[in-house]
Structures are given as C-alpha cells and as structure tokens.
Amino acid sequence: MARRTRTRRLLGTIGITALATGAALITAPSPQAEAQEQAQAVTVRPDPSYQQQKFEGWGTSLVWFANVTGGYPEEIRQKLASLLFDDDGLALNIARYNIGGGNAPDVKDYLRAGGAVPGWWKAPEGTTREDTDWWSADDPADWNPDADANQRWWVDRIKGDIDHWETFSNSPPWFMTTSGYVSGGFDATADQLRADSVDDFAAYLAGATKRLEKAHHIKVDTVDPFNEPNTNYWSTRLGADGQPVGGRQEGAHIGPELQQKVILALAPALKKARTGARISAMDETNPTTFARNWNTYPQAVRDLVGQMNVHTYGTGGRTTVRDLAKAADKPLWMSEVEGDWGDGQSFQDMRPGLGMAQHIVDDLRELEPRAWVFWQPVEDYDNMKPGGESAKGGNWGSIQIPFSCTSRDTLSTCPIRTNTKFDTARNFTHYIKPGDRLVKVDDTSSAAAVSRRGDAATVVHVNSTTAERAVTLDLSKFARVARGATVTPVVTSADGKLVKHRPIAVSDRRATFTVPAQSVTSFLVSGVAGTAKDAPLLREGHTYRLTGAQSGKALTVADGGTGLVIRTASADAADAAQQWQLRQISGEGNRQRYVFTNPVDGKRLAVRDGAAVLEADRGTRDKATQWIMSTTGDSTWTLVNAATGTLLEVSGQATHDGAAVSVWQPNSGANQRWKVTDVTAGRSGSAG
After folding, report:
1. Where in the chain is the domain with CATH 2.80.10.50?
2. Which DSSP symbol is given to 672?
3. Rounded mean pLDDT, 502-527
4. pTM (two decimals)
C-alpha cells in the first residue's frame, strides 16, 4: 500500500530522467538530436507462439479512498464508481478489500485521511490500549458485524463488476501487535505481530473474510495476510506527550520466519471458517525482496500458497519472480503499484501517463502476471495539490478528489479530477481484456495480446519521445491474416483521449501508422488467428545451440559426458557436443515443459543433488528432467528446472572456455540467460 515518500520520489525521478533529454529537445534541439528523433521508427512483431496464461484482468485495492468516499453523497460516490468500474472508465474487474486492523478506542486518530480503516472487532466498554488479552475469535460478542460501512458500500456497489475478490491486511489489530499501534513497531525492523498472537491473527483474517462473504453475498477467492512485510517502512513515533504522531498508515514488519508461521496458521483457520478462499502471499514491495522471502519458505509452506503476489515499487528482479512462479506452477499477480512519473501536480502533463503506461508494459513483458492491480486509483486532492503534504509527488492517483468533503457537498463543490494516468491506463484496460492471452513481443515499448477467442489481437505502444514515430506492425507470426484484415489505432496524447482513427488495411502482413509524440496507442488488429508454422521457438526434428548471454559461449558437453561447460562456439555447426534437441512433453503457453537431449549419446539434461548433469534417458521423466523456458522477447531465454525451481547458469558468471555450467536460484543475472539458435542442417538463425 505504499505511498512512501522514498519510493514515490524514486519512481518520479525515473520518469523525469527518462524524459529530460526530450524536454531539452523541445526548447533547443540540436540538428543531430532532431535527426535522431525524426529517424526513430519501430517494427513490432507480436508472436502468439509464446502465450501467457489467461489474463484475469485489472484491479484496485479499495482501502483509503473507499473508507473516505463510501460515506460521500450519492452523486459523488456513484461518479467515482463509474470512473473506476464502468466500461467508459477504467473498467476494472478485480477488487482487494482491506481488513482493517484498527487502533484501540482510546487512541486519538493520527493516521492520514482514510488511513484509519475500522477493524472487525468489538471491544468491551472502557477498553484501552493496554488491554490486549480480551479478544476471542470464538466469541460473537467480540466481533462487529457492521464494521467498516464506508468500504463495504463499495463492495455492494461494484460486486456485479468483480470477477475476483481478494481480502488483505496491512496490520493486525492493535491488541496483536508489539507496539500497541497499527502504524508499526517502535523498531521498524523488528516483528510487529506478537508471537503469541499468530493463531488469533489467522482467525481474525478468516473470520472477517467469511463475514464479508456472508453479508454481501460474494465469494472471496484469495486472502493475503501481509503487505510489504519484510521492510523497514512501518514504524510508530510518539510525541513529547506520549501520543503517536507517525507513521500515518497501517503497516507491520513481519519477517520471513514469522510469515511462514502465519501461513501455516491461516490455512486451517480458513478451513474452520468455511470459506473457500486460498492464501495469496506475500505482497512484497519489490520482486527482489519477494524472492528473498520466498526462498526461505520450506515446501510445506509454499504448498499452502495458492497465488503469488508481488508489488513493483522496485523494478529489478521481475524475471526472477516470473521464473519462481513458473517453477511453483502458481498464478502470479502484480498486486500493487502507483507512482508519480512527473514533476508535481498537473492534470495535463503527459509524463505521468507515459510513465505509468511504460511501467505497465514492463510489468506485463518481464513479470508475466495473471493480473495487474492499482494501489488505489483515487487519491486525496487536498494531499496532492500544490503546497500540500505530497505536492512534490503529486500525481499519485489517476483520479483525485478532496478527502475532506461533507454530506452537503456536490460534484461542483467536491470536484473529481483525472490526470493523464487515467487516460493512458484505459488504453490497456479497455483493449486487453480478461480471458485474453498476453504474447511475446520484440519491442520494449509495446505489450501485445491475442483475444479470448483467438480471432483478434491488441498491441499497446508507448512513445515517450518528443517526436512522432512510425510504428509498423508485422503480423507474420500469425498463421492466418485475412484478406480484409485491418489495424485500428486508438491514440491518447495531449491532443485527445482514446481517439479512434480510421482502420488501416493490412498489406503483405504489415500495417504502419505514425503515432504522435508523447502518446500511447492501442492497435486493434482484426482478421488474424493462429500461430504460423515457423513462429515457435521449438519445432519437431530441429537442433539448437544455446549460447550464454553474458559469456557469448556455447553450452557444451564436458569431457566425460556427464557434466556441462561453456566453450567458444565451434565453426562446425554440426559439432554434436554443442547441439541440443528439445521435446515438448507437457503444459501450454509460457509454462510448456521440455526435455533437452544431446544427440551424442542421447543423454538428457537434469538436476540431481543440486547440480546440472547429463544422464541416460531411461524413458521415465520426473520433474528434475523437465525445463520451462521464459523470455522477455529479447532473443534470450531462461531455463527453469521444474523440480527445483533453479535456473541453468554459468557458475560464478565466468566467461572462459571450460567454465562450469550448473544451476542456481533465479536472480535475473545475464549468466542465467541463453540465446537459442537453430542449427538444423540446411538452416540457420536465432529463435527469438
């Protein structure tokens, strides 16, 4: 849930840095730079031979904005709901309900506007912060079935639009914490959940989830007990009078060991509550921290996690988590992100919209999530306006409204504003729909998907430069391109929002359109279907060479025939020691599994006792002999072992001939990526 100044400024800085050169070109372009901008043209090749799992959709957490606006006058909250969930708005179909922790009754509210989400407990009269042992999950008197009316107004309003409900926690209730406050511990790096409250916390989450389901006639699919737990973000500070003055939102440090205990307790608690919800975890702040946590989980804990959730406030390590999810064979969500990507508050500046759009593209290409979820698209205008607390990072939220409106306000006195992030996000949410499958694309500024029915495609392209750009769609990877196939551009720029242009006829499987400067364009492709015969990376009867992306040297059978090394690629393409034949044995799309065999002795590649080995193929295939291949479309691939989740890599990032090849945990390193080249007799070329 992370509106942290540190993270926000980082994201904003990335956006500003990326566009600083462009801003200079507007004011005083040099002839060389101007020529470079004018020369920029791209060809984008969507490739349906590499398809992700069915996309579940786009979503939001409810939390603060719902806690505030659920009690607003009807015309205001209905307008907000339309902007978020109706087809002309963001068209979201996933919602994450926050199970509030809640401070003690005698603690004066010090959290940011909307941050004090009510808990589901009901404390006896006179309960204070010092009273921590009164609550029992089995006592109905200790529950408040009418809690959190404002957020729950939203549940009723949108439940017809939602395909997947998730409940999640930012903090346990105050009486389960070490500090006695829901804003974090006095030491931000120490566990905030009391060790003796693990079972109570699990029962609280399960009980609130079941009560939500029953009261609103919904089905909650997943429950995530954490929010960015293994961080130093969450701390409570006391003023001179002993009263809390910060932090300003619910949060709790819960380290990996304690996370495991919570998951082990939550599984039986959900069963006891008779909710069919599965556990999702662990909503970590970035992929690298997620992987660090996940790698500590024993298999018994991993087995209890039905869905892997990660945030992308840090962008490194996306492919690490992608490969961990494939090895675990679990759905993966990008379950929260937001940011500024601009220079303070503006509702016309395209930079926030471009920054968000590129972030979405990068998440879809590198992380391969089944769903993409906003933190909260609605933010507090009072907090964001120039001169406000967050003025320097004032574009958090695609929609802004004062969080101080009253029951007497109207849309005129409590206005709703949208910025360019709202506009560019709709280029994705309107045209990449639940049930579609994202596919490989070779351009880092584009994301592509084929429709649920397989008879159409969408490409979303981000042009962050200050010059227009010719974009050519190459549709040659599709099996069928109809005679009347067309491409319809839908453009968002400073000149208009979702402006639909006339369809362009496809000629020779290609169509070109010049997109405006600083724009996001959705290309709606009709009349295409299937996968061209020569599009897939792997084809029956073909032979391949694997070359290390870092070393530039080929995967080779070591002397002795049981190990693997890298060596300079042989000039003889028929050198059998550097050849690999691959067979698909199971799975579909981006989770297909393959067996790698060297043609010399017919030995297959496997992982045994933590090492990569070549072994005789005895006909039986356990998971240790199966490999899943991943790519971002850059012509390099990772090879994920299905049994161990480890990746084939050049040990120690070595580059010399004879360097050992083995396996290691995914880390997004260049020594874990391989270029795959078709060396079948009479053929040549790389498989992208």
Report:
1. 544-687
2. G
3. 98
4. 0.93
